[in-house]
Amino acid sequence: MADLHLGRVPLGRWGWQAFMGRLENHRVLSGDLQDPSWRSRAVTSQGDVQAPLIMGYRAQATFGPLLEFYLNYLNLWSGTLNGQGMTQGYGFTDYLTAMTGTKDTLAEANTDWSDPSHPPVTAYKNKARSASEADLGFRAQVPSLARALGAQTSYAYVSRGTKSTTWPLGVFAKQPAYYLGKDVGTDLRHAGNPGFLWARNDHYTAPNLTVPNDTVGLLASCNMLKSRIRMRDEGVPRGPGGPPHQFRTFPDTRKSMRRCSLKGRSTDAGPVRPAAPPCPGPGRS
Fold first, then answer.
1. Closest alpha carbon to 12 in 98, 138, 119, 170
2. Under-50 pLDDT residues of the chain
3. Which pLDDT tens digit goes with each residue over 216-266?
4. Measured between alpha carbons, how far is 88 from 79 in angstroms, rounded to an integer?
């Protein structure tokens, strides 16, 4: 962790982490999936990716003694499908795209999603295939609640995760000043409507969450009891029983990866998420 400043303005203490590993084979689908029947059929028809690589990146920050922030990014790539390597025939740009999980961003970068007449996006830019997910959140200590419960620490937290994003970087790059002004103007016009700003998904200057997962809750860390109360909006796929995104061709293990890598952490460090069973092998989840 290191202190960051903008001139003389403190920006908090920041730290970064990265890891890479490999998931096990023979994934077993969990029974509490959002759309288990569709995912089961997809695994049967498309096959099950074996032993893919998983890469993760994490940024975390503290702002004073009470407020914390985190941002996690997970990306699944490589492995074998039906006995054939997923990276077979890859060139340098294919590897780079797969490792960073940017295949969808490249395919959709020049699509203006706010234009109802935009042409359909039907092709990737290269051979790379991967599946990625982001999750960010804030938590603030609540000393009064900790005292009332006799807990060691107590937090109020809010987090957002996403299974798919859109980000028209190509559109933004053509007229950056214009689209920056358009984004800022829209936010200012709706400054009194927090619900609109929270749900907005037509930014040009930042990623847009198409299937967000929102979590709000309280956490108390006690000597004998750890209690959590939360409300959650899981989001829905695009279309009845359909996939969350037309480009998610790599069998989707992102939800289970987030449970294993993010929710399974201790409450004393890392994202504030309920614990989950050990992460199973690859495949759709």
1. 138
2. 233-285
3. 999 888 776 555 555 554 444 444 444 444 444 444 434 433 333 333 333
4. 10
The whole-angstrom separation of Cα 172 and Cα 180 is 8
In the numeric block, which tokens belong to residue 253?
A: 């293990």
One-letter amino acid for residue 122 of the chain = T
Distance CA 224, CA 203 (A): 45
Which residues, other chains included, contact 194 with Cβ-Cβ below 8 Å and sequence gap of 6+?
Answer: none
What's the mean pLDDT when you consider all of the chain? 76
Contacts of 169 (CB under 8 A, 6+ apart): 105, 109
Q: Which DSSP helix (H) or strand (E) runs through 103?
A: helix 103-108
Q: Going by DSSP bridges, is the β-strand pair 84-85/165-166 parallel, antiparallel, or unpaired?
A: unpaired
Q: Which positions ≥6 away from 56 have C-beta within 8 Å? A: 17, 18, 19, 20, 72, 73, 74, 75, 261
pTM of the model: 0.65
Q: What is the DSSP string of 189-248?
A: HTTT-HHHHHH----SSS-EESSEEEEEEEEEE-SS-EEEEEEEE----SSTT--S-TT-
Q: What is the pLDDT of residues 129-156, one digit of tens each?
A: 888 888 899 999 999 988 888 888 899 9
The pair of three-digit structure tokens given for residue 62, joined into one six-digit string: 């503290």
Rounded distance, CA 72 to CA 255, Å? 13
